[in-house]
Amino acid sequence: MRAFSGIRPTGELHIGNYLGAIKQWIELQERAECVFCIVDLHAMTTPYKPERLQKNILELAATYLAAGLNPEKCIFFVQSQIKEHTELAWLLGTITPLGELQRMTQFKEKSKKHPEYVNAGLLNYPLLMAADILLYKTEVVPVGMDQKQHVELAREIARRFNKKFGQVFQEPKALLPKNGEKIMSLQKPKKKMSKTDDPRGCIGLFDEPEEIKKKIMTAVTDRGEIIKYDPQKKPGISNLLTIYSLFSRKSIKELERKFKNSGYEKFKKSSIELLIGSLGSFRRKRKEFLTREVYVKEILEQGRKKAQIIAESTMAEAYKKMGLS
Ligand code: AMP
Ligand code: TRP
């Protein structure tokens, strides 16, 4: 089974990225052929600083390694280093109706958020994402909930291509984690955690202990004092329970029992301890990888070479089927 996924190098990652995506990747690399990408071309669709981009790419690579991606067990590389991604995106654009791109939730949300910067790249974003996925004949795409719609579009595009020109691509499926497919903001627990919204609602993977403490202590909770999972009536506590459960590997039921008579404050204090402990080792490992730039670049180069072979072969098939040589 082949798996593919990617994250944009737009700055620090948060625990939603980890619990929604990377945590699954670590597990998948043990049982699937995995390709993980740093999608720098996607990072350019919203305002960014060119002089920061290379640094962000290296930091994301160090983060992948710190989180436990093993370059011996998976391929990982930088999207823009393989030209076939943009080439295939063009071909896929010629068989995708405009309406399908315009109805994408992320396009609508991001256009609203940056009305001064609604570029065609933002609209074509899912085509490039479909190219990323299809180029590697991917079957599963481990992502958080917000990317499910894009993966479904990639599936539709693969089906359409195969039907029109002959079988080339696998029809990919999104793989969402059982829990954690949508980690919510600590400040607005009905909205997803995101680094661009209220930063106090978002715990960075590399936040210092003091920041973690402050963010959890000021996290919005709900009326009452009972620790119970009920996303409708108690979205704040339910989100904290989900986070706790995923980091501690204990079930939510078990946690409800454990904190039955604790009250919010005690539960929050225990969450802080757990998070500081879990994220501490990440922070240390990432720091170490950041000092080993040559090594990290070498891993990306090895990944590029392996990915290039697969990308070239799929591209040749697609060209041929479409009547190009
Ligand atoms: P991005 O930072 O948008 O490139 O997202 C990288 C990955 O993290 C994607 O697979 C997203 O679906 C996932 N992700 C982002 N935010 C969250 C969240 N709040 N909860 C769960 N997964 C998320
Ligand atoms: N669009 C994804 C996001 O914002 C990132 C991404 C780009 C991706 N290409 C991909 C994810 C291919 C999975 C597969 O999170």
List the keywords.
three-stranded parallel β-sheet, 325 residues, Rossmann fold, single chain, Tyrosyl-Transfer RNA Synthetase, globular, binds adenosine monophosphate, mainly alpha, two-stranded parallel sheet, binds tryptophan
Description:
The chain is mostly helical and 325 residues long. It has two domains: 209 residues, HUPs (Rossmann fold), CATH 3.40.50; 89 residues, Tyrosyl-Transfer RNA Synthetase (Orthogonal Bundle), CATH 1.10.240. The chain has 13 helices and five strands. The chain has a three-stranded parallel sheet. The protein has a two-stranded parallel ribbon with strand order 4-5. The longest helix has 29 residues. The structure holds adenosine monophosphate and tryptophan. Adenosine monophosphate binds next to helix 1.
Please give the largest β-sheet: 3 strands, parallel
Q: Tell me the overall shape.
A: globular
What is the helix content? 55-70%
Order of SSEs, N→C? EHEHHEHHHHEHEHHHHH
Whole-number mean pLDDT: 95
Q: Low-confidence runs (pLDDT<50, min 5 residues)?
A: none
- First CA to last CA: what distance? 29 Å
Q: Can you tell me the CATH topology of the largest domain?
A: Rossmann fold
Q: At the first level of CATH, what is the class of the largest domain?
A: Alpha Beta
Strands side by side in the biggest sheet: 1-2-3
Work out the count of structural domains: 2
- Which hetero ligands occur in this complex? adenosine monophosphate, tryptophan
- Label the CATH architecture of the largest domain: 3-Layer(aba) Sandwich
